Amino acid sequence: MNLNNPKIRRLEWDDFAELAEQELAYHMELERNPHFGIGTYGSKPEPTGLVDWFTKLYTAALCGDAFVSVAEVGGKIVGMCHIEAGHFAEGPHVGELGISVVKKHRNAGIGARLIKAALEDSRGRFEIISSSVFSTNKSAIALYKRFGFKEYSVAPKFVKRGHVYISSVSMYLDIGRGIPRIKKDND
Ligand SMILES: CC(C)(COP(=O)(O)OP(=O)(O)OC[C@H]1O[C@@H](n2cnc3c(N)ncnc32)[C@H](O)[C@@H]1OP(=O)(O)O)[C@@H](O)C(=O)NCCC(=O)NCCS
């Protein structure tokens, strides 16, 4: 098993069980760490909510309104990146990006490979990619910046978890003229 060489592929219908399990693991991670970088369901995700979430995502992918890349290591899914159309009528060219990699496999370059695959698939459908990131999520901010994402606003204290306030940073990438070459440390 080569940890640095995950298989990157598109979402499949059979991925539901593994991805649902991961959503539950992310919820538990959030319970331990209020700075955990993705919004979850607030309460423990219910099976019906997970089925609804996955069905909508898979349907959007079939319709060309979502582009989902999945990373597998040793035959197990370890991360997912999705770029989805919003519901704003005048924003059909804007895709919203979300990404997660299971804790054990972070900082091994999987996030970068997932974003690259989802961006490449979404070319021609979206021109602007946006994402909201917690200001404390240094790893996601560093990753997005490597792809050329730029910050365009900061919403102070927009997230409140218990007594912890977190600012929300909005970032965007213009891929209308192509996907920028990923930045290496010596660029
Ligand atoms: C954000 C996330 C998807 C990144 O996935 P990943 O597989 O770890 O990403 P990569 O390994 O490709 O890149 C991570 C980068 O962050 C950098 N990084 C890690 N911790 C950092 C820190 N504290 N400060 C600055 N950079 C940091 C790493 O060095 C790496 O950059 P490099 O490749 O240039 O060295 C992953 O951390 C995750 O799933 N987090 C929980 C969910 C989440 O926050 N999702 C994002 C919501 S916007």
**CATH homologous superfamily, by name?**
Gcn5-related N-acetyltransferase (GNAT)
**What's the multimeric state?**
single chain
CATH topology: Aminopeptidase
- How much strand? 25-35%
Structural class: alpha+beta
Strand order in the largest sheet: 1-2-3-4-5-7-6
Model regions low in confidence, pLDDT < 50 over at least 5 residues: none
Topology as a string of helices (H) and strands (E): EHHEEEHEHEE
**Main β sheet profile:** 7 strands, mixed
Radius of gyration: 16 Å
Number of domains: 1
Helix content: 25-40%
Textual characterization of the structure:
About 30% of the residues lie in helices and about 30% in strands. With about 190 residues, the protein is α+β, with helices and mostly antiparallel strands. The chain has one domain (about 5-175): 3-Layer(aba) Sandwich (Aminopeptidase), CATH 3.40.630.30. β3 (about 75-85) and β4 (about 95-100) form a beta hairpin. The chain has helices at about 15-30, 45-65, 110-120, 140-145, and strands spanning about 5-10, 65-75, 75-85, 95-100, 130-135, 150-160, 165-175. Coenzyme A (COA) binds next to β4, α3, β5 and α4.
Secondary structure layout plus pairing:
Blueprint (H helix, E strand, L loop, with lengths): L6 E4 L5 H17 L14 H17 L2 E8 L2 E10 L8 E8 L8 H13 L5 E7 L3 H9 L3 E12 L2 E11 L13
Parallel strand pairs: 4-5
Antiparallel strand pairs: 1-2, 2-3, 3-4, 5-7, 6-7
The structure holds coenzyme A.
Coenzyme A binds next to strand 4, helix 3, strand 5 and helix 4.
